[in-house]
Fold:
Amino acid sequence: MSTLTLKGPYWVTVRQHRRVLWAVPALVGLGLVVVVALRVWSDYPTYDALHRPIHEYGYDLLRSLMHSASDTLPFLPLLVGAFVAGPMVARELESGTWRLALTQSTTAKAWLGSKVLVAAAVSVLGSLALIGIYRLGWSRVTDTYSLYWYDRGVYEATGPVLVGYCLLGVAFGALVGQLIRRTLPAMAVTGILTGLVLLILGALRWSFLPVVGVTAPYTVDAESLLPPSSKRMGTGLVSTSGERFSGYYCPPEPGTRGICRDDVDVTASYADFHPASHYWPTQLIETSILLALAAAVFYAAFRLVQARHP
Structure:
């Protein structure tokens, strides 16, 4: 990252953290090379002497990499927030080096703004690049075990919510770093806060949109009502009163194929699900929530620095 076109506190911020800032494009470039290589390898299956497809090592390696990336990328916002809170903000407040910036005709608000802007720009560009690289590899192995669009980790790594979480991490870091003013505690608290938001929204995201429900005669297996690639929210049986039961509630009449006994009050099978078309609306709703939270936390962070150092 060049510092030639930057001035004032922005130049200082980039200069201070240049090693980390250079590491971001290096890691992105390495990830791109690995994914492209595995993607090309997996597109060419191996055949035996009778021209029968045999074990594809490239495909298996690509799936393994995508699984690892799915488990890792959701932690990126925690790392971003911890870095902003600790090395970028709290460490300078703890050591007192931030006062040097104020002697260079720079206000405390501009000092914090340089930290936030540099961190936000790198986080947005870096997360967008990682999303693109992940989608490049994931598109080859999608709709396989633990790699469906709604799976935890895959959902965060394939859409703009990852960018939203990274910006929220930057906002938490800017605020918590000022409040705690100790490097390690500020990093820990910021990581915990960002992780809590990640867990809470992850538990709520499938209630943003109403589920799609379908019914059929009770002799139809409820699982067969689910469209391909849909997220299953519930399946079972419906009684005449409208009460829903597990699919295992209906014991078959002896000697019949799935027909309930006369003493069992069941009229239909049902399936509730989120179709694949709910992916982007859910992503946009969650991203909007994250951006609103980040804006509120950024506002609090700048109000705090202005109140303490007018």
